[in-house]
Amino acid sequence: MEPVHIIGAGLAGSEAAWQIARAGVPAVLHEMRPAVATFAHKTGDCAEMVCSNSFRSDDDRMNAVGQLHWEMRAAGGLIMAMADRHRLPAGGALAVDREAFSAGVTSALRDEPLVRIVPGEITELPAEGNWIVATGPLTSDALAAAIRAGTGTASLAFFDAIAPIVHADTIDMSVAWEQSRYDKGETEAERRAYINCPMTRPQYEAFIDALLAADKTEFREGEAASAPDPTPYFDGCLPIEVMAERGRETLRHGPMKPVGLTNAHKPGEKPYAVVQLRRDNALGTLYNIVGFQTKMKYGAQTAVFRMIPGLENAGFARLGGIHRNSFLNSPTLLDERMRLRARPNLRFAGQVTGVEGYVESAAMGLLAGRMAAAQAKGADLAPPPFTTAMGALVNHITGGAEARTFQPMNVNFGLFPPLEDSRGGRKGRKDRYPAYTQRAKDDFSTWLAAQ
């Protein structure tokens, strides 16, 4: 049997290779790292997480992301299996020890007899064979040029940012305290999964002033020229300076909102704003500053972030950064099987298709892998119904979205078809959301059982 080739061993490519092998089809996984590096990646391991260590909400009853988690687990997904194995306390979210997670994915793929990992850069789009392109937002310049030539149109681009990571032993716990918002979580560790740094109104105002005045990075060579004006940031991952520029209270109603938290040191004093840090590794020695993606220069980051109460002496394991994130105008280029219409031997998967987020990227790899494996066996696999989280995503990127204004999208209930009146009607979210997720579970289970 001819193998399926996958370009890129990120979350999408790794999941695709796993699904192909599980279907009894050989998979060849091509990865250019570490021989050809990117500025964001630090290793040559598979499924390296660079921006955050969170897969977001794990609530499969009330949250579309949690429902996507459920579907990936039901489909035997490698990414979710390793996320569960290397899970860290994070309240209602699914956060992982990113190094252990990536090492686990790499080990599982190396131990799978039907998966062969081949180092080296692919610089052209293959004309023959069964291929999946899962190169992500940091596709190499050579392959990006080949994709542009092969699609007959320029890929779109927006800018993505990375949050800083702090050494836990440099956080002043006489000021900060441990608590998940609304004490969410089933265990004591989950209810204390976040470190919270409180701000008074004067401290918040001074922080905003410093944030707005701080030196910002310039775009790398070739980035600014390729980007429209204004810079098309993805709204789900905005630099905090951009949020602050939209209004002085924006951060206080976003990542710095003080609701659902009580200062353990001063229970009767309500903070005006709160900065949260989430555990980044199993040892609990590293914490990332939640929602604090930034494009400030390194010196400015250190000065501004040390204005946060509790972080006056913070030591940084990694400072934030910004990079270009490229993706296809998928509604015009891909069919519902995720194939390039002009060259149907090529499927695309992951963030390059215009989904946003680790889970969404891996889910598109899961689907592409199953579809490619079916093709290798002489069959055809339709996508899941778009009443499911996976189906809603693939429907959105392959035709449901408006091509003229297409932008990266996280999974959300707005992508799901409306509920029938008998089940949804004018009911509130507490009734609608469980109806969405139960319908999705039923329909996804039926789709899986038919394979």
Automatic annotation (TrEMBL):
Species annotation: Paracoccus marinaquae
Top-level division of the source organism's lineage: Bacteria
Residue ranges of the region described as Disordered: 417-437
EC assignment: 2.1.1.74
Name of the featured protein: Methylenetetrahydrofolate--tRNA-(uracil-5-)-methyltransferase TrmFO
Keyword annotations: Cytoplasm, FAD, Flavoprotein, Methyltransferase, NAD, NADP, Transferase, tRNA processing
Binding site for FAD: G8, A9, G10, L11, A12, G13
Family in the record: Belongs to the MnmG family. TrmFO subfamily.
InterPro entries in alphabetical order: MnmG-rel, MnmG-rel_CS, MnmG_N, TrmFO
Domain (MnmG N-terminal) ranges: 4-379
Record function comment: Catalyzes the folate-dependent formation of 5-methyl-uridine at position 54 (M-5-U54) in all tRNAs.
Top class in the EC scheme: transferase
Cofactor: FAD
Cellular location(s): Cytoplasm
Catalyzed reactions: uridine(54) in tRNA + (6R)-5,10-methylene-5,6,7,8-tetrahydrofolate + NADH + H(+) = 5-methyluridine(54) in tRNA + (6S)-5,6,7,8-tetrahydrofolate + NAD(+); uridine(54) in tRNA + (6R)-5,10-methylene-5,6,7,8-tetrahydrofolate + NADPH + H(+) = 5-methyluridine(54) in tRNA + (6S)-5,6,7,8-tetrahydrofolate + NADP(+)
PANTHER family per record: GLUCOSE INHIBITED DIVISION PROTEIN A, METHYLENETETRAHYDROFOLATE--TRNA-(URACIL-5-)-METHYLTRANSFERASE TRMFO
